[in-house]
Structure formats: C-alpha cells, structure tokens
Amino acid sequence: MHFRKLIALLLVLFMMAGFPIAHAEEAPAVLSSSRPEVYYAASSTTPLRENKELRDHLADALTRCVSEVSLESFKIKATQANVDAISELIFYEIPEAFHYVGGGFYYNSSNYLTQMEIYYLYDAKTYTPMYNACKAAAQKLTAGLEGLGDVEKALLLHDRLALHCEYSVDDLTNGTYDDNDFTIYGALVEQMAVCQGYAFAYEYLLDLAGIESTICSSEDLNHAWNIVTIGRVKYHVDVTWDDPVEDITGQVYHDNFLISSTALYNNGHKASDYDTSPTATTYDQAFWRYAYSSFQLVKGELYYIDSADFAIRRYSDQATIHTIDQKWTVNSFSFSSCYARLATDGKNLIYSLPGSIYWLELSTGKTMLLHQATLETGFQIYGFDLQGTTMIIEPFDYPVFEHDTKKTYQFTKPYADPAPKMTDAVKLLRRLAGERVVLSAYLLDRNNDDTLTIADTVLLLRELSA
User: Fold this and answer.
1) Where is 314: in which H helix or E strand?
2) 25-29: long-range contacts at Cβ-Cβ below 8 A with a sequence spacing of 24 or more?
3) CB-based burial label for 219 (10 Å; 0-12, 13-18, 19+)
4) Distance between CA atoms of residues 19 and 16, nearest Å
5) Going from the N-terminus, what domains does the chain have, and what CATH number goes with each?
6) Are 55 and 61 in contact (CB under 8 A)?
7) How far is CA 335 from the centre of its chain?
8) Whole-number Å distance between alpha carbons of 33 and 18
9) Is the Cβ–Cβ distance between 249 and 392 less than 8 Å?
C-alpha cells in the first residue's frame, strides 16, 4: 500500500506544480485527489457516493483505462470535498478499479467540474488481462443464482468466496503484503487476500447479483468488511471472519452473515469507529449459524449440514434429507459438533465423514461409499471439497489446522459420478429379459421396494429424460 500512496502523492504534487489552483479564463483550473484509505469508509455517505449514474460513467472509463473523462453533465461544484468524494466513490464503490491511484479535476469559470484526468497504477496492457481474469472468476462464482432470493444469493456468494479465497497468512506473518492482497484480483484470481480484498470481492460479486453493498471498516480493528442491503434493510457481513485462519477446505462459518451491529460487536468487532447503522436483528439467530460447511446449490435448491444436529438439510423447508451417524473423536472424546463438509457435482451431494467420503442421491436418498481413507492413527477427515472431477481430502488429528497442515496432509482422489446412466437402464432391461448382467441393484431400485421390476426402468428413464 505504501508504494501506491507514494505514486498518488507524486502525481498530486505534479498536478499542483503544473497547473495553477485558480480561477482563470485563459487556463483551466484544477483540483486533485488521491486514492483514500480504506478506514475512511465509515464516514462516507455523501450524495456523490450514492450517484449510480456517475458511478457507472466512471466505471466504464476506468475499466477501459481512459485517461480523461468528462464530468460536465453531472453539474458538480468544484470543491475539494467533492473531488475527494469522487475518489471515494471510485475506491469504495468500483472495486474493479484496483488500478486507480488518483486524479486531477478541471473546472470552469462557473465553478463546476468539467473533466477528470485519471492516474493509474497499471497501463491498459497490464490491467485488461487482470480485469478479464477477475470477470472470468466472478462468472463461475455467480453461476446458477437466477431465480433465487437476495438472501440466498448473498449466502451462496458468501460461502463460495470463503471457499475460493484464503487469507494471506504468510504475508500477515512476514509483513510482506502485496498490493493484490487488498484487491479483487488477489481474492478472485490469485485466491489469496486480506480482509480488504475479501470485502471488495464480495462487494463486486454482490453487485453482479444485483445486491447493494458497501465497505465498512475500523481503523481500531485494522479490519474491513461489508454492509449489505437486503429488502432496504442493512446488515453486516464479514466473509473474512467466517473463513478462519488456518484455512480448512470446505469449512465456512456463518456467525457474521447478515447480522446487526450489536451481534457484530458481540462477535468480537469491539470498536466504536465503524458504521453501526445496521440495527435489524432479523437474522442474528438464523439457522445458518450452526452450519460449519458451505451451502450447496442443486437444481435451484440449497442444501447444508446442520453441524449441531448432524443432519443434511434442505434450505427451503429445513427438512432433514439425511442423518450423519458418525462423530469425530480425539482420545475417545466425541465432539458435539459435526465436522462433515458438503459438496456437489451439480446433480447430487457429496459429503465427508471421519474416515470416508460418501455420495448422496437427492431423488432417492440413497448413499454410496466413494472413498474409504487409510489414515494415520488418530487422524480424521476435517477438510473436503469436490473440484471438477477431483476430491480434495484433508485429514488431521484435530479440527483446528496448523500452518502447514494442508501442505503436509492434503491428498486427492478422482471422482466418478455413480448416478445411474442410460447404459444402466439398458442393463436393467436386459436383466429383466433374463440375461445375466452385472449391475448395481441398490442404485437401480428406483422405487426402493427391494425388487428390480419394469417400474424401476420407467422411473429411471423418466429421471434421465428430465
């Protein structure tokens, strides 16, 4: 951050040296403003910050790396407060403008801003591929949200970002922060960020999903997060604190999702220098507080693991669709919380147990063992996710990881979808015709009557055609 601020300061000094800060018909007058500090977010509720037309106008110019942009049509008075507000708008409301370092503002004899000259950390050749990579990552993270409510969208994006990004622990420990740690590029592309990168990335994803949000921050806490507006009501969301250090694959907490300022304070944000306007307690005790794994979207429905009740549940009606009957233990002591992790292949669910990985078919409730792990004595599976056709598995001897746990013990296994396919329907028809065919009677018994009949074939064909 020091390098960025140095550039901004030099540019501002250059502008002040090269142009008079004065009113003159023969020469354009100029004001200047540099990229603000994130900790100023709490006091930023100016009309300019809320001007969506101005935001979109500037975002278009910034993402095209335009050096000069007209401001005449917005009729903005040429004051230092207004040019600082424009810089704040860019910094806080346009997270994709991570290459912005400051600007010079021209104004006319009527004392209205006419043009902004923009200064960049990167040129277009460098920035454009970085921005394109951000958009590609965001497209994957926002996939499938159509038709969901804003709460569900915000919840899925919260979880997907927490799974996608890790906190830059090494940079924190060594004090070797990279500029990207503070940006959406770090969070979305490099998948490593600090709180500011998480907050900007979440704001960016929410904007793509049509949900209003902004940055909230505290200098006393040295921390930044989001205020999210759902149904015209504001709530705090802190993705960083819900993605604890050290990172465990598949683990996501929800203690800081859509909560009031009171709940946020009680959760550890014990400071008085941040925006406390979110007062609604609607979700302070929501059921997702007991979900320690990510919510998964399958065919328009959300599913999650209730870690207090050891149950896989459907979001819409809280119905239990599967009970987890194994517990995690250390030295014969059984934990009261469930450390199963949940993933999806897009059609069904995959979940972890202390020593194994299982597949759960949503249409029938049938389960199938995918992998039985051979682990060191005392080790159990605490981290799990499915990434494409690869299962990521992380065992350890305790549910809190150390710095090198993932690097040392993580392993992968290939995933093959066991769901019945058209070839299985053909095999079933051949078996019913009297042929000796090897098949999975358990999976092909679609009506769960313990007998293979033509009715199972009809049900399977209907499912496959759907």
Assistant:
1) strand 311-314
2) 25/109, 28/106, 28/107, 28/108, 28/114, 28/115, 29/78, 29/106, 29/107
3) middle
4) 6
5) 2-121 (no CATH), 129-290 (3.10.620), 298-418 (no CATH), 422-465 (no CATH)
6) no
7) 28
8) 15
9) yes
Neighbouring CB atoms inside 10 A of 117's CB total 18
So what's the pLDDT on residue 41? 55
Q: Which two tokens stand for residue 376?
A: 């060191």
Question: Which token pair is 155?
Answer: 């919840």
Q: For 199-226, what is each residue's pLDDT tens digit?
A: 999 999 999 999 999 999 999 999 999 9
Q: What is the pTM of this model?
A: 0.89
Q: CA angle, 189 as apex, 152 and 351 as ends, to 5°?
A: 50
CA angle 199-204-208, nearest 5°? 145
pLDDT in tens, 359-417: 999 999 999 999 999 999 999 999 999 999 999 999 999 999 999 999 999 999 999 99
CA distances from 436 to 61, 154, 428, 432, 457 (A): 69, 52, 10, 9, 17
Token pair of 173, please? 């420990």
pLDDT tens string 287-346: 999 999 999 999 999 999 999 999 999 999 999 999 999 999 988 888 999 999 999 999
